[in-house]
Specification:
binds 2-oxoglutaric acid; Glutamate dehydrogenase; five-stranded mixed sheet; alpha/beta; nucleotide-binding; single chain; Glu_Leu_Phe_Val_DH; Rossmann fold; nucleotide binding; binds 1,4-dihydronicotinamide adenine dinucleotide
Length: about 450
């Protein structure tokens, strides 16, 4: 095929839309990546003739299954479960499981697609996958969670394995759920093996996995700032979310001299003008982990703070915004408000928290923009290290893992610079991450021929 005969970006996206009806999140994720890839492969014939991007937008396989469980009243409940195995060109499928009522096939396909590039960016040998269920853990008893996890794994176990596919946690799936699922896997298969990451330390988990996503995102932010001869010390941060990623991002930012003034959940956001310190962050963590509570209770405990019901925190003045809750939580108007208020950096702790139009506003303003697939890759990176520890049947110390995470985040930043630095000195981190992630996976696919 001559270079001029290539399918162009618009035609390509028409095809993606046609083949994936009613899957807006997946189409959005593909569009965000494909824009940059089309520019990169313009003069690279093999990527076109071998249809690499077309192949990458068709998951290797999607498994969908019924999850039946019994609630505490004895009623039978039926949920849907999925595992999307997107691409294993550079290693076993790897990526989290999400339990949330908003989970659909589209959401999991977008997450698995993103995960493929993210995992490549870490430099570790991991392919991309994602899974989960529309099960809502909110308000469920511990026994109900256990029965659901066991039922979920009773089907999932036949599709995963330490060299095949290694799931982990995501929204609604923490160490408790991983424990229940690992227990069931072991019981069914009689294998004690590294088939899940994020496990408890007593049974093969890695120190530092809980901290790694949030800490890694702040380390990535620090690299972005230092590339501009700046630092986090003294900066005000607005963070959304109150879960694993948000609270650990807040903790690391505070340790490094930042002032974090918000956290949020699905009920609204807390503004604390005095800033969150370790005691307040621990309180939020306990509220969420032990009591499944709402942040609306925060001002009763810390009197200077305000709770803003049903709102997101992007109106609050800040130097740095870190969306760490969920997808599409920062829209075009939010982006404009942040920029008007003098925000100098948006760094994504969550996966695709920024709507496409908002991302364009941020890029056009030429402020720093750290995409999730680079900024939040520290979590899956330490999961990759947990896989290595399990294979070698050993455990590294926390200090060793912290050092490895630092090196990995530095490497990801360098890979983004390599492909994202523009002639005027502006670094397009989105483009840099997309191209660096794509190139590694694409070159492996080329080596395999047409499969
Ligand atoms: N846990 C991990 O290691 C990694 C997580 N991520 C991403 O980070 C984000 C957060 O995940 P985790 O902290 O692990 O989950 P989590 O379950 O610990 O916390 C999620 C938080 O987001 C809030 N939230 C959920 N839906 C919301 C909505 N519609 N509006 C406002 N708030 C909402 C919840 O209230 C909760 O505070 C997700 O996008 C996830 O995919 C990315 C990389 C790794
Ligand atoms: O640690 C893992 O494998 C899961 C991480 C994840 O789901 C993510 O990076 O979004």
């Amino acid at each position: 095929m001559a270079a001029t005969d290539h399918v162009d970006f618009e035609k390509f996206m028409e095809g993606v839309n046609r083949r994936n009806p009613h899957q807006p999140e997946f189409v959005q994720a593909v569009q965000e990546v494909a824009q940059d890839i089309f520019e990169f492969i313009e003069d690279k014939e093999r990527y076109h003739s071998e249809q690499i991007l077309r192949r990458l937008t068709e998951p290797d396989r999607i498994v969908s299954f019924r999850v039946c469980w019994e609630d505490d009243k004895g009623d039978i409940r039926v949920q849907r479960g999925w595992r999307v195995q997107n691409n294993n060109a550079i290693g076993p499928y790897k990526g989290g499981l999400r339990f949330h009522p908003s989970v659909t096939e589209s959401v999991l396909k977008f997450l698995a697609f993103e995960q493929t590039f993210k995992n490549a960016l870490t430099g570790l040998p991991m392919g991309g996958g994602k899974g989960g269920s529309n099960f809502n853990p909110k308000g469920k008893s511990d026994r109900e969670i256990m029965r659901f996890c066991q039922s979920f794994m009773t089907e999932l176990y036949r599709h995963i394995g330490p060299d095949t596919d290694v799931p982990a946690g995501d929204i609604g799936v923490g160490s408790r759920e991983i424990g229940y699922m690992f227990g069931q896997y072991k019981r069914i298969t009689n294998h004690f093996t590294g088939v899940l990451t994020g496990k408890g330390l007593e049974f093969g988990g890695s120190p530092f996995r809980p901290e790694s996503t949030g800490y890694g995102a702040v380390l990535f932010l620090c690299h972005m700032l230092s590339h501009r001869d700046d630092a986090i010390d003294g900066k005000t941060l607005v963070i959304s979310g109150a879960g694993n990623v948000a609270t650990h991002a807040a903790e690391k930012a505070v340790q490094l001299g930042g002032k974090v003034v918000t956290l949020s959940d699905s009920d609204g956001f807390v503004y604390d003008p005095d800033g969150f310190d370790q005691e307040k962050i621990d309180w939020v963590r306990r509220l969420k982990e032990e009591n499944d509570g709402s942040l609306s209770a925060y001002p009763e405990e810390f009197s200077n703070a305000e709770f803003h019901e049903g709102k997101r925190p992007w109106q609050v003045e800040c130097d740095i915004a870190m969306p760490c809750a969920t997808q599409n939580e920062l829209c075009k108007d939010d982006a404009k408000t942040l920029i008007d208020n003098g925000c100098m950096a948006v760094v994504e702790g969550a996966n695709m928290p920024t709507e496409l139009e908002a991302a364009h506003v941020i890029k056009d303003a030429k402020i720093l923009f750290g995409p999730g697939k680079a900024a939040n890759a520290g979590g899956v990176a330490v999961s990759g290290l947990e896989m290595s520890q399990n294979s070698a049947r050993r455990t590294w110390e926390q200090v060793e893992l912290e050092q490895m995470l630092q090196d990995i985040m530095k490497g990801i930043h360098e890979r983004c610079l390599k492909h994202g630095e523009q002639d005027d000195g502006y670094v397009d981190y989105v483009k840099g991450a997309n191209i660096a992630g794509f190139k590694k996976v694409a070159d492996a696919m080329l080596a395999f021929g047409v499969v």
